[in-house]
Amino acid sequence: MKVNVYHLRPGYKLTKDVMGKTLNPIIPKGTVLTKQLIDILKEFDIGEVWAEYSNISGNSRDLKANTAEVEAIAPDLKALYLAAVKSCQRDFKNWQAGAKVKVEEVRDYLIPLFQYIENNPSSIGIIHHFSNKEEYLYHHAVSVGLLSGAIAQKMNLKKGDHYQAALAGFLADIGMARIPQHLLKKANDLTSMAFEEVKSHPVNSLKMIQHSSLLKPETKLAILQHHERLDRSGYPFGESPNRIPIMSRIVAVSDVYHAIVCDHIYKKRKIPFQAIEELTADYFGKFDISILNVLIQLVARLSIGTKVLLSNHEEAKVIYPKQTAPIKPLVKILSSGMMLDLEKSRDISIVELVK
Asked: CB of 140 within 8 A of CB of 259?
């Protein structure tokens, strides 16, 4: 497709040679453009080029965070977060060796981190950048805890329930310590027998904390139920919706969202907008829509004037955010001035914010 040079961004790949007043191309096709190369095109007064954004292709998109940018946003958060991940890794290995779960020790390193999120709510939207696939399990525990607590806070639950939700999210997968290690590191599809073994982890998690006096009954239930779904397709019991309380629903949403936005040994991560779209489309009817809407406000909120990059490679500006379709607003295409209703144009979606 033809792209105006002033709409190019680093990452676009030329699909045709760029010719100037020379016999040879200024830049040959196949070149992935950098900021310096885009500046060169401008110097040569090139108006348009044939290019495609090579990094946008579903799951194959390279979504590595700009580390310097993330660290500049929240260096204190990153330090607290990585310390909690380190503590989680230490504890998990002890649990694998048969040690008892000491909830008071988990609380001592998780809650100070969550209190940072409480005081800086917008920072919850960047924590997935800190994750890596080699230590995914520990990052997942910490992040699901933070997300669950942040959702509880945004939903105006009691302050004590913010902390209980954070602990429920963190402890939901500790039962993985009772699963054979080779299954946790398996990069391809599990056999049905192996998958059944992995599916036992919520029950394992509950058994490991069931006698803790620091956890409320509804917190323990959320740990057990974090894979239950409102359409009864979940496990371990396929519970009906009226038997799945609010904290269980919060942890369920947090668990799946974080899994989508992080790299695994078997799949590439997606950005928050893609994750929200997957949750609302592919998982329709499985999750509490009110909790999904709160998650959107925390990690993918759009306001009038926000600039976005669309899946058709066009940049656009949000003209009218919709309460009924939070990630499908009315936008204005910057290159043409055309208005586009993303709710009606289902083949086009937002892939990232433009700064």
From this structure: yes
